[in-house]
Write a structure and sequence with these properties.
Strand content: 25-35%
Helix content: 10-25%
Shape: globular
Distance between the termini: 5 Å
Structural class: alpha/beta
Number of helices: 5
Largest sheet: 7 strands, mixed
Length: 204
């Protein structure tokens, strides 16, 4: 299984001809990530996690492409969208996926207050915009590194709670090169950790 990062929160999991894309947003190379994909997982409706235009174009070229997301967003997206809920296990692109969590991390005063699903894909965990710790064992954790709801201490606590075999950062477009290095230095103390450059891949 190959994991490729396409910028910010977008990754693609590939196993042979099975391609599963998670959170292809406007801050990522969504069109490239979606090319040839079999299915898509979207944690929530914020633009940095879903590029609606790119998604519609991908579905136009491949009507069999399915999009799995929470019920409200699935209803908004319409044809090809499949509603899933936290706690539900389903199959997408031939991968076994479990949706977990349910709520976006708070920024302030209960905001943004929208649904957010994390996804467990064969030992890989993408939390979307949350620090939800699942009860399942996680082999590979994708750790949010920046955003209005993120601070380093919470990211460290998240890693300690999940206890993954290894971790890679996501949700990091907001950080400067110095900021990236600073975040990496903290996380390297916690687990087997490395940064995947945009467009690069690792073998899981």
């Amino acid at each position: 299984m190959i994991l490729t990062k396409f910028g910010h929160a977008c990754v693609r999991v590939q196993d042979g001809d099975r391609g599963l894309v998670i959170d292809p947003g406007t801050f990522s190379e969504a069109e490239i990530a979606l090319s040839g994909a079999t299915a898509v997982l979207v944690s929530h409706e914020h633009g940095d996690h879903i590029d609606v235009k790119a998604l519609k174009a991908a579905r136009a070229s491949n009507p069999a492409l399915t999009v799995h997301t929470h019920a409200a967003l699935a209803a908004e997206l319409g044809e090809g969208a499949v509603a899933v809920a936290a706690g539900e296990t389903f199959t997408a692109a031939g991968f076994t996926v479990k949706a977990v969590g349910g709520e976006h991390a708070e920024i302030v005063d209960g905001l943004p207050g929208c649904p957010n699903l994390g996804f467990l894909v064969d030992g890989l965990y993408h939390p979307g915009d949350s620090f939800f710790v699942p009860s399942e064992e996680v082999d590979t954790l994708l750790v949010p590194a920046s955003g209005p709801w993120v601070k380093i201490g919470e990211a460290i606590t998240f890693v300690r709670g999940v206890r993954p075999a290894r971790a890679f950062p996501i949700h990091d477009v907001h950080l400067s090169e110095i900021g990236l290095e600073y975040f990496d230095a903290w996380l390297e103390e916690e687990t087997d950790y490395a940064r995947i450059p945009a467009g690069a891949s690792v073998d899981l």
